[in-house]
Write a structure and sequence with these properties.
197 residues; 2 domains
């Protein structure tokens, strides 16, 4: 049976939008500034070269017009190429950053969900990260800690169940105060068993 391949949209990669978009916007803005400054410097050098050629061709006006027109056309093509390349680079870099931050935000999102469940008393099975996700070592340590905490809770719950069974075997009166507390303890053990399943 073949594994079904999931179709991913860019929105699927935005798990923690606040965290991920902060880095994407910062790097995109920085890239745009760098591309803009480099593009301006290249254009400025091309413009200086065009002006130098224009000055040198001042003595041959019939030839100068054609050369100047050609140089201006080349300058405009250079600007268009630089803008298109800059925008393409920024879009590509932004998409790459969304994917890269997803590989960090995904594991953090999973850990946060497990911590929320732990806070609520549930200790479910911790599933491994996907291949290619970052923070693998951190996640393995978290998983080991989670497994250890769960094992302690299971052991404590088993001890409490044994205590309830011994108390019932000893004939504690269900109608008395001790019987009421024993009933509460039995219910608590049942709830813990569900939470630890």
């Amino acid at each position: 049976m073949s594994k079904k391949k999931h179709n991913r949209k860019i929105s699927n990669y935005l798990i923690d939008k606040k965290l991920q978009l902060r880095y994407v916007i910062f790097v995109t803005t920085l890239s745009a500034l760098i591309c803009g400054m480099l593009g301006f410097l290249i254009w400025q050098q091309a413009d200086v070269a065009t002006n130098i050629i224009r000055e040198q061709l001042a003595d041959a006006p019939d030839m100068a017009d054609e050369v100047i027109r050609s140089l201006k056309s080349e300058d405009q093509n250079l600007i268009f190429t630089m803008v298109a390349s800059g925008v393409g680079l920024i879009v590509l870099l932004s998409l790459l950053l969304v994917v890269m931050t997803h590989k960090v935000a995904g594991p953090l999102f999973k850990v946060t969900r497990y911590l929320d469940k732990m806070r609520d008393g549930r200790l479910d099975t911790v599933w491994p990260l996907r291949k290619g996700d970052m923070l693998q070592n951190f996640y393995l340590k978290f998983s080991a800690m989670h497994t250890s905490v769960k094992a302690r809770h299971v052991e404590t719950n088993e001890t409490l169940k044994n205590f309830v069974a011994l108390a019932e075997a000893a004939g504690i009166d269900a109608s008395g105060d001790q019987g009421h507390r024993l009933d509460e303890l039995r219910k608590h053990c049942e709830q813990r068993s569900e939470a630890l399943a």
